[in-house]
Amino acid sequence: MRVIIFSWEYPPRVVGQLASYINALSIQLVKNKVETYVVTYHDSLTGAIDDASGVKVTRVANPIRVHIGVLTWDLTLNQEVERAAASIYYQAAEQIDLIDVYDWHFIPAAVTLKNALGIPFVYSVESLEDHRSANSNTPYNMSIRSIEWIGFYEAEKVSVKSEWMRDEIARIHNVPGNKVKVISPSGESWMEDVLELYKNVARGASDK
Amino acid sequence: MKKKLSVMMFTWEYPPRVIGGISPHVFFLSKSLAESDVKVHVVTCDFPGALPHEVIDGVEVYRVDSYKNPAPDFATWVYLMNLNMQREAAALVNKLGGKIDVFHAHDWLVATAGIGLKHVFRKPLLVTMHSTEIGRRDGLHTDTEKMIHETEAWLTYEAWKVICCSDYMVSHVKWAFGLPEDKLIMIPNGVNTSVYEGSETEDCEAFRAKFALPEEKIVLFVGRLVYEKGIHVLINAVPKVLERVNAKFIIVGSGYMKEQLLKIVRSMKLEQKVLFMGFVDDETLLRLQKCADVSVVPSLFEPFGIVALEAMAAKSPIVASDTGGLSEIIDHDATGFKAYPNNPESLAWGITKILLDENYKKYIRENAYRKVEEKYDWKKIAQQTKQVYKAVLGEYSKSFWA
After folding, report:
1. Positive or negative, the Cα torsion across B68, B73, B74, B75?
2. Does B2 score more than 70 pLDDT?
3. Which of B3, B18, B274, B350 could form a disulfide with B249 if both were Cys (CB 3.0 to 4.6 A apart)?
4. How confident is the model at residue A134 (pLDDT cuts 50, 70, 90)?
5. Which residues contact B370 (CB under 8 A, 6 or more apart)?
6. Do B53 and B17 share a structural domain?
7. What is the nearest CA distance from A70 to chain B, expressed in angstroms?
8. Alpha helices in B96-242 (DSSP H)
9. Which residues of A touch B155 (CB under 8 A)?
C-alpha cells in the first residue's frame, strides 16, 4: 500500500502536538510495510528526502512571501502541496492508494487531487474552527469552517480521536456517523485500526 | 483523421458577467477559436440567471459556484473562488477523459486554478496577462498589492508562454517579472466591427437631443472612473475646450472616483456641461460611440486600450494619451490624435482640433477604421493564438510530461 500524509507540521517544524504524532504514525506505517510519503510545509528545508526511518518526506514552501492573512497563505501554499503530491503520483506510476489529510490546512489540495486523479482521501480531525475560535462568526472563521465542510463532504472517510469529536462533527457539520471512524491513538489497537481504515478507503477497495 | 485541438480557458468574467475587458476578450477569442476548429471549454464564475453549463457559438461554457466560501476580503475571495474553480474543472477534465491539450488562464484572478490543474494533469499552461498590479497601482504600496504582484509573477513563471496584447505590455511584463524575452508573445486584442455596422445615415440627431443641445458637440469618455483611466485629466481639459467650442462631455462608466469627480465638476460650475451617465446598456453605448463627435481616452496606464479600438470601429474620431497600448493603436495625425499623458492642455488641443476641423476629422475616422479591419480582426487573432497552442504542444510533446 502507498499512502501520502498531508500535515502542516512535521519535525523539525513543531507547532503543536501534531508533528510528533505524524512522525510516530508514519514510522509505524513504514514498519507495517506501507510506503509512506509525508508532504508538509517548511520555509527553508524544501525538497524531497528519505529519512532514516524510511519515511519519504517532501517539504514545500510558499512561493508568495507577502500575505494579508492565514487564508491567503494557506490557499497559495496548497498549490505547492498539490504539485508535490501530483509529482509523487506520477513518479509512483499513478499508484497512490489514498491521502490522509490532517486538519483543514491542506484540504483544498486533497479535494483537487481526488477530483482530478481519483485518489480518495481520509480527513483526520485534530480540532475544529468552532473549538479553536469559539463563538466567532467573522467571515474569516466562516471561511475556515467552509473549508472544513468541503473536507467532510469530499472525504471518503473521516477519522477522529474520540467519540466526543464524532458527535461534534455530526452536530456542527452534519457528518453522518457511518462516514466516521473513531481511532484512539492511545488505544492498543491503534495501528491495526489505522491500517483497517486505510484498507477500506484505498482506491478500488469498493470494487474488490 | 487529425485530432481536434482542445483548450480549457479560465476567466473570472464571461458574459453575462462583465466587469472589465477580460470578459469580451475571452468571449470573442473563444468564439473565433471555435470557428477555427478548436474545441474550447471556458470555465468561469457564476452569474445570477446564467446557466451552469451551456454552448454558446460552439464554445462550451461552465459557470462554477464562486461564492461557496465566505471570504473576509476580495483577494481572499479570489483564492477561495479558485479552490472551487479548480475542483469543478478537475472533475470536468476527468469527465472529458482527460482530453484537454492546453490550459489557458487570463490574469492572476485564476492563477491558482491554472497552476494547480497544470500540475495534476501535467498539461501545458498558457497565460494572457491583460494587466499588472504594479501598473494598475503605479507601484506596490500595500501588502495586498505585493501579494497580487507575487501571484502574477508566480503565474508567469509557471506558464509555458505568456501572451500580451501589445508591444508595450510585452516590455512591461518582461520588466515587472524578469521574464526571458522568448517566453513572451504579442497577440493584439481584437474588436468586433460587425456590431458597429448598420446604416451610415442613421439619424443621430434625435438620439443626440437626449444628451446635448443642438449647438453642442458631443465629447465621449467611456471607462471606469478610476485614477489610471485619467478621467480627472479630461475634467481639467473641459474649460480649455469650452473656450473655443461649445460642447457637452458625456462620461460613461463608474468607479471609486465618481463622488470626487462630481464635487470637482460642481466646484468648477460645469454641471451643465459634464454629464455622468454611470453604466449604460450596450445599445445606448453603441449609439453614443457612433454619434459622438470625438471619443477621448486620457488613460495614464493602459495595457491595451480596447475602448480606443471600439471607438475606431464605430468610426468615432479619437483623442488618446500617448501611453501604453494606446501608443501602438493610434498613429498621430493619421488614425487619431495623440496627446501628452496627464496633460489637460494637450488633451484640450486635440479635442478642439477634431471638433473644429471637419476634414481632419474625416481623414482620421477613415484611416482608423481601415486599421481596425486590417490588424484587429478576431479571425486573425484566433489563428495566431492557435499557432501558439500548436507551437507549445510541439515543445511539450518532446518533454517528459508528454
Report:
1. negative
2. no
3. B274
4. confident
5. none
6. yes
7. 10
8. 111-121, 133-136, 143-158, 167-177, 204-208, 231-242
9. none
CATH of the domain at B33: 3.40.50.2000
User: Of the candidates B73, B83, B90, which has its C-beta nearest A68's C-beta?
Assistant: B73
Output the pLDDT for position B1: 52
Contact (CB, 8 A) for B319 and B295: yes
**CATH code of the domain containing A137:** 3.40.50.2000
Tracing cell 490574469 back to the chain, one arrives at B107
Confidence of residue A205 (pLDDT cuts 50, 70, 90): low
Residue B300 resides in a domain = yes
Antiparallel, parallel or unpaired: β B5-10 and B102-106: parallel
pTM of the model: 0.89
**Are B203 and B180 within one domain?**
no
Tally the domains of chain A.
Answer: 1
Instruction: For residue A64, give the nearest of B86, B119, B151 by CB distance.
Output: B151
Q: Which long-range contacts (CB under 8 A, 24 or more apart) does B55-60 make?
A: B56/B31, B57/B31, B58/B31, B58/B34, B59/B30, B59/B31, B59/B33, B59/B34
Same domain, B149 and B277: no
Mean of the pLDDT values across residues B170-176? 97
* pLDDT of B198 strictly over 80: no
**Secondary structure percentages of chain B, helix, strand, coil, to 5:** 45, 20, 35
All three cell numbers of A29: 506505517
What is the domain count for chain B? Answer: 2
Min CA distance, B48 vs chain A (Å)? 22
Q: Is the pLDDT of residue B148 over 80?
A: yes
- On whether both B292 and B234 belong to a single domain, the answer is yes
CB < 8 Å to B115, chain A: 79, 83
Q: Structural domain of residue A127, as residue ranges? A: 2-207
Cβ neighbours of residue A27 closer than 8 Å, sequence gap 6 or more: A53, A54, A55
What domain range includes position B63? 5-190+377-396
- The arithmetic mean of pLDDT across residues B275-299, rounded, is 94
Interface of B with A in 116-135 (CB under 8 A): 116-117, 119-122
Residues of chain A with Cβ-Cβ distance to B75 below 8 Å are 68, 72
pLDDT at residue B196, rounded to an integer? 83
HSE-CB for A21 with a 13 A CA cutoff: 18
Above 0.90 for ipTM, yes or no? yes
Residue with cell 513518479: A91
Assess whether pLDDT exceeds 60 at residue A61.
yes
Evaluate the omega torsion of the peptide bond into residue B303 and state whether it is cis, within 30 degrees of 0. no
Q: Which member of B76, B91, B119 has the closest CB to residue A82?
A: B119
Burial of B389 (0-12, 13-18, 19+ CB in 10 A): buried
Nearest CA in chain B to A77: B112
Q: How many CB pairs under 8 A join A and B?
A: 107
Taking a C-beta distance cutoff of 8 angstroms, is the pair B289, B296 a contact?
Answer: no
pLDDT tens readout for residues B52-65: 999 999 999 999 99
